[in-house]
Write a structure and sequence with these properties.
alpha/beta; two-stranded antiparallel sheet; 8 helices; 279 residues
Length: 279
């Protein structure tokens, strides 16, 4: 009996030569969950940015040529997951491609990478926020952290938020066009939550967690990959996020005492923690 066709996922994100972030963590996670993964690098990065010195090669021209070839070859994907976008030109390219693929039923997942801890990343301008809003407008699921959610919703970035404020932010994200919203790292009345708003008509559901006092680059990419994988199998965003939070917490704890945290988490060694458990 022939095997059932694997779900095909295109990952549009950057690739670091040294360190486990973006494509180098998302590909193993989604392959482990038995998806067929493909990638379109938005940039080649020498190493994770945490080291302070790095080099970035913008691959926009390569992306344009690649998408022309793929169109001729009639390649298509069941899902597209976007991450780091280098420029407005690149954003337009990704937006148009996602929009075209969506007509054939492709699911679109957007991680609007722009900043964290209340600040924009270096090089992120108001223009970047504008084109990221456009990408979010066609997304089935968007997964910003609270800082990015504020940029997208034009809400004042703060240290802590009330529940009504979170509802306002999430509703504004739906107004952009996003069908389901997941907001990470939200400090609500002094406690940390992941926020899930599965549709415009549903209220926010707050999932509490204990903040682990450590920083690894790439944990957001791992979170995104696991959420996408579970969602494509379960079809339920809340259960997918709950499972992801449990599994990622175990992985972070297992790496708590790594000497060089700037490298990120060596995810291939912890794939057994990622499975299809039901919430």
């Amino acid at each position: 009996m022939a095997d059932k066709k694997q779900t095909q996922i295109l990952l549009i994100n950057d690739m670091a030569g040294y360190g486990k972030v973006a494509l180098s963590v998302m590909i193993p996670v989604l392959s482990h969950l038995r998806f067929e993964t493909f990638n379109l690098p938005t940039a080649l990065v020498s190493n994770t940015l945490d080291y302070g010195q790095f080099d970035i090669l913008d691959t926009t021209e390569y992306m344009e040529n690649t998408l022309l070839v793929w169109k001729k070859l009639m390649f298509s994907f069941d899902a597209i997951c976007t991450g780091f976008i280098v420029s407005e030109r690149q954003s337009s390219l990704v937006y148009e491609y996602c929009k075209e693929q969506q007509k054939s039923g492709t699911s679109i997942f957007v991680d609007p990478i722009m900043g964290d801890d209340g600040k924009r990343y270096n090089g992120v301008t108001n223009q970047v926020v504008t084109y990221m809003k456009r990408l979010c407008s066609i997304a089935d699921v968007i997964v910003p952290n609270i800082t990015e959610a504020c940029f997208l919703s034009e809400y004042t970035v703060k240290h802590t938020y009330s529940e009504p404020e979170i509802e306002v932010i999430a509703n504004r994200l739906h107004t952009l066009g996003a069908k389901s919203v997941v907001i990470t790292s939200a400090n609500i009345n002094g406690r940390m939550f992941t926020v899930v708003k599965s549709s415009p008509k549903n209220s926010c559901i707050l999932l509490p967690y204990e903040e682990i006092p450590v920083r690894f680059p790439g944990t957001g990419d791992i979170f995104m990959a696991i959420v996408v994988g579970h969602y494509l199998k379960l079809g339920q965003i809340l259960e997918s996020v709950q499972s992801t939070m449990r599994q990622l917490e175990k992985i972070i704890y297992a790496n708590l005492h790594d000497t060089d945290k700037y490298k990120g988490i060596p995810i291939e060694q912890f794939l057994e923690e990622i499975n299809d458990e039901k919430a």
